[in-house]
Structure prediction request, 407 residues.
Amino acid sequence: MAAADDLAFDPWDPAFVSDPYPAYAGLRERGRVTYYEPTDQWLVPRHADVSALLRDRRLGRTYQHRFTHEDFGRTAPPPEHESFHTLNDHGMLDLEPPDHTRIRRLVSKAFTPRTVEQLKPYVSRLAGELVDGLVAKGGGDLLTDVAEPLPVAVIAEMLGIPESDRAPLRPWSADICGMYELSPSEETAAKAVRASDEFSAYLRELIAARRKSPDDDLISGMIAAHDEDDVRLTEQELISTAVLLLNAGHEATVNSTVNGWWALFRNPDQLAALRADHSLIPSAVEELMRYDTPLQLFERWVLDEIEIDGTTIPRGAEIAMLFGSANHDPAVFTAPDRLDLTRTDNPHISFSAGIHYCIGAPLARIELAASMGALLEKAPTLRLAAEPERKPNFVIRGLEGLSVEVG
Prediction:
């Protein structure tokens, strides 16, 4: 086991957040697991270990299906954070079997591959319209003009949220997702609680309306979904699942889009190759998600003692799997720090793995390919107008904006 105190891993340092990959290389070279005292976590940087641990049932996204907070050696969240935890803890991302299995199976009945495939024309049309708007202005902020409105509109359309109600969705999501950063502040927690209250209240009204008058949307489908014993989602599970689908359904796509184009601008040879051959779009989407991973870290609780490379990690500990590091592991990826849009052997883990593999991965791929295709076709001279600033967040990695010019 290596100690992290002499390494460059510092998730609150803007320089590290700007480029964490050299520090990851140091972590991988030190060993398979490193204890990081500032967050009381065990960092796992190598691809093989991250991939295996994502499937290891001795770990869990929660421990409350087996232990109380006291039994597990942890402190219960403060009562003033209850709204956030009620919302978060009833979504399938933070549940373990059997509840996770039941909810995912029911959601999957409404969120089918056929449903997603049928969205392709709508996604393509919307991407084209957004890029047309950007071109008409001669440029703008790729984040607010294209990257953000596309996935927000798509998942809102799927859920059945009326267009007139969509303005608060992104701010609510941003405030809630602030709690997924390491050691969030009380100000961040207060914003997350307020957003959780407001978003939940809105969805409660929408669900009530859909119960009375079902429509052809995901919320109506989830209300109707039941298993062979006629077990259905509870109202809280419906609310938590809708919020999870919205948050997960656009956060990664937004950041993948702007991170990806920022990477392309920094690698003009790869951008030129993509412009010359649009058939590279599918492999480009995968490579850009690997190259600058939108979700850098994913946490698991140790439910039963495990051993990694001779180091015993006790029950009650927390493991932080470094997706960004795993996606740059030279044991798996040839020249991992090089952007290669033709890379075909690309087992990146940006969508996670195991039972918590991203249910929306097919939709994310459709959205990323649609926006990339529209920008390549309609804005062939797209170029960077100003150096972007990184958001201070480490776990959910993105840019404050991406200023571009066309023409």
